[in-house]
Each structure stands twice: as structure tokens, then as C-alpha cells.
């Protein structure tokens, strides 16, 4: 049995694997261009690390799939003492690294719950810190909404008077709206409809995704969200906001409605973060907590190392 075959079965029973590392998600975003490292003992899987494989101009690249917030190592939860846990993580991560196929470049974003990347550092990998924003407890919604900033609460009050909230708009309508709203801002959409449709269908088939949209009385679509979730967290994967209707506050209202919905099926909501200042400020105003996460990389190819240095000399 191959590692992938074992991993399909493993994902069915192990509930602590984050959504973006689930086999069904990887099938949707990578097709057959993915594989997984597994560390086993006595028939038990203690560590896993899926990876996306891309071939470009003769180079093999192990990278982040599209629309995928995080990958990285999963380590079986342990009740050992802290120093023993770190020792165990070192052994398990070294086992994962040893199984990686020959590659020229490795680049992954890790889940924020994985806070130890030292074993990768000791093997020559590099790390950059990024940030996401998370509301960690969705039990007391009154408390959650009281932590919204004044501007968000004002937007919600405004939107509630004029916006009709609708769940489960089609993949076609969502994608078309996102493409159109970006075009109004002089931007191009970064993912294909084919990819989004695969994610949409897979998410709905696994009861792990919904669209939500806000319309006015004239059926103008002000904003929409594509939300996904697992047993650990919900994720605000894609947001579309029509700049012509931004001032009416529909996007803030949709966030409130989404939080109300996912509070019944998961523990937290992850806004997916952004290094863009204005986006970061908006997420923070929902009362979310800043969470650092790691981008871990390694360049094996001397040619790519030289190309990277040249690029930095012109851009930095």
C-alpha cells in the first residue's frame, strides 16, 4: 500500500488533521500532483506531511497549492512531558524530511498550531513569519460580537436594514461576481473557475463548505463569502465585495452571519490573515487574535539560488 493510499484511510479516522491537509482537499486543489510523507511505528502513523508537486522548466518544486492556507507537518498529539515532546518532534520531523523526493525548491506555509520548526532549521531550511487572525472561542456569541470594533458594528446595523442574506449561491454566480468586482478595481482574478468549482463541489460533498451572499431589494449583489470548515476551525477562504456598494456594510453583516452558523459546528474561525495593512486592520476589528505562522523553504538548486539573489538585488 502506498503512502497516499494509507493517508486516504488515515484522514477518515484522524480528526486533528487540519482541513487543508485533508486528502479530499488536496485532490481538489492538486488533482494527482501531490503525495505525502508518513512516519509510522507498529502500524500507527505518528507524523505526516503532504506536499504539492510542480514541474517547471526541468525543476521539481514542492510548493503550496492554490487557495490553500497551510500544509506542513502533522504530529500525533502526545501527553509526554514537554522536553520529551520536543525530542519526539525532532525524530519525527527528521523522518518526514528524509522521505521528501528529490527537489530543487521547497516552500510551504505551516498551520499556526505547529510552533516548532527547529528540526527543519537544523536541516538547512529557512523560515519567514506571517500572520493570520483567529477568533478562538465561538461558544458565547454575545461576547464575540461585543468585541467587534465600532466601525464593524455600525456597518452591521446599516446593512441589516437593507440587505437580504442568502446561503448557497452557485459556484458560477460566486465566481462571476468575484471576477467582476476585481475588474472594477483594475485587478484580475487569481484562480480559474475550474479550480473553484472543484473546491466548491468537494466542500459541499464533505459537508465542509457554503457560500453566503448579501443582496439589496433590487437584487444587487453587494458581497459574498466562501466559507469552509473542519472540526477544529472555519476559514474565510474567499471574500468578494463590490466596490460600488462597499459603504453599505454587507461584508461585515455576512461575517456576523457566518460566525453564527459555524459556531454550531466548529470551535473557531480563521480569517486567513494578510500582510496587506488595510486587510489586516479589517480582520483585527472583528476582535480576532493575531496568530503567527511559518513559511518554511529550502532551495537545493544552485541555479535557483543565483536567480533568487539576482531578483533580490533588483527588487530589494
Give a short synopsis of this structure.
This protein is of the alpha+beta class and 316 residues long.
Secondary-structure map:
Layout: H1 3-13, H2 23-30, E1 34-41, E2 44-56, E3 59-63, E4 74-75, H3 82-99, E5 105-109, H4 118-121, E6 126-135, H5 141-146, H6 150-160, E7 164-167, H7 171-184, H8 193-205, E8 209-215, E9 221-229, E10 234-241, H9 250-262, E11 269-270, H10 277-284, E12 289-299, H11 302-315
Parallel strand pairs: 3-5, 10-11
Antiparallel strand pairs: 1-2, 2-3, 2-4, 5-12, 6-11, 6-12, 7-8, 8-9, 9-10
The secondary-structure element order is HHEEEEHEHEHHEHHEEEHEHEH
Major beta-sheet overview = 12 strands, mixed
Broad structural category: alpha+beta
Count helical runs: 11
From the structure provided, what is the oligomeric state, counting identical versus distinct chains?
Answer: single chain
Rough shape?
A: globular
State the name of the first-level CATH class of the largest domain: Alpha Beta
Stretches where pLDDT is under 50 for at least 5 consecutive residues are 309-316
| Percent in strands | 25-35%
Query: Percent helix among the residues?
Result: 25-40%
The rounded Rg comes to 21 Å
CATH H level, superfamily name of the largest domain: Gcn5-related N-acetyltransferase (GNAT)
| Count of discrete domains | 2
User: What would CATH call the architecture of the largest domain?
Assistant: 3-Layer(aba) Sandwich
Quantity of strands, as a count: 12
Mean pLDDT value? 91
Query: CATH topology of the largest domain, which one?
Result: Aminopeptidase
Distance between the termini: 48 Å
